[in-house]
Amino acid sequence: MTDEPRGRELIDRYRENYHISRDAVLTEEMILRHWQIEKELTRALLESRPENRWETFEECYTRLYRELDWLNKLTGSEEEKKPRNSFNLLLQFIGTPPKKIYEIGSGRGELIEFLSSRGYECRASEITRERGEKWSRQSNRISWGVSDGVHLDRFEPSCTYDCVISDQVIEHLHPDDIEDHFKGVFSILKPGGKYIFMTPHAYGGPWDISRIFNCNKPMGMHLKEYTFRELALKLKKARFRQIYSPAASAKKALATLGKAIDSPILRWIYFQQVLVTESMLSLVADQHVRKRMFQRLSRLYLFPGSIRIIAGKSDR
Which of 130, 164, 123, 160 lies closest to 145, judged by CA? Predict the structure, then answer.
């Protein structure tokens, strides 16, 4: 880790990373407090044992948003002004209503509310009511639930949902729980159902608060950031099939291509190309060089800037 930024530089970096409006009051003391709390909570999360993990996670996230009550109010304020193109692009992969959708880690509820407005039957969830219920919008098509985010089959009936979605969630799970998480998703999906999820790519990271302080790896509440290959292997262990990364992104230049890649063989070819490119990046020993190469390839649309994966459950 290089010298940590301070003063105006720190505040500007924090605003940019968390999409905070220039009009919002933000001080160096607020940011340093956030940094200190996340490091403390991260240690507790990583040291938690399976038998008390959900309790630990709920306590840690409740403390985070209780002691930093301004986080929910300020973060994302600038981003929300932009059109949610990524939400619209999801529709082509979910399919047309009626379908039952379960979201893991609904947060403010923007995505699940968007899907509900498009005619899907939706269920939102969070690991703690402290954050989730505060932002959940009640409607005839959205129900609310809590779960540990891992053993979903303990909270939802098996073979219930056509689609399970998570956006920026799995990097917050304990690394030891990721396979159980995938197995839990697999259980509550109907035959032929899909798990669609988005998460930061490790080679461009860290993407949590550690990024603000020039860290080389996540030291905040991103407990692990993954690669495509790591996740594909774990998905296969959980019995998922038809694992691929949609070529579509929020960039208009790729939107048409994303719609064109609609056959299993073309999806497979594209995903193999992603895995090969990722393997080449993994050979770059210097982390800073690899990160610059990742950023360059992403800007040129030769490699996804973040991980988007669709994993299918066999219909037999």
Answer: 123
Q: What is the pLDDT of residues 234-255, one digit of tens each?
A: 999 999 998 999 864 444 444 4
SS3 114: helix
What's the length of the chain? 316
pLDDT digits (tens, 9 = 90+) for 272-307: 999 999 999 999 999 999 999 999 999 888 899 999
d(CA 234, CA 273): 19
The three-class DSSP label of residue 112 is helix
Cα(57)–Cα(68) distance, integer angstroms: 16
What strand order describes the sheet that includes 189-199? 142-146, 121-126, 100-104, 161-167, 189-199, 307-312, 241-244
In the numeric block, which tokens belong to residue 156? 């939802």
Q: Is 189 exposed, middle or buried (0-12, 13-18, 19+ CB in 10 A)?
A: buried
**Cα–Cα distance for residue pair 7/172, rounded to 1 Å:** 28
The string of DSSP codes covering 46-109 is HH--GGGHHHHHHHHHHHHHHHTTTHHHHTTTTGGGS--HHHHHHHHHH-SSS-EEEEES-TT-
* pTM of the predicted protein model: 0.90
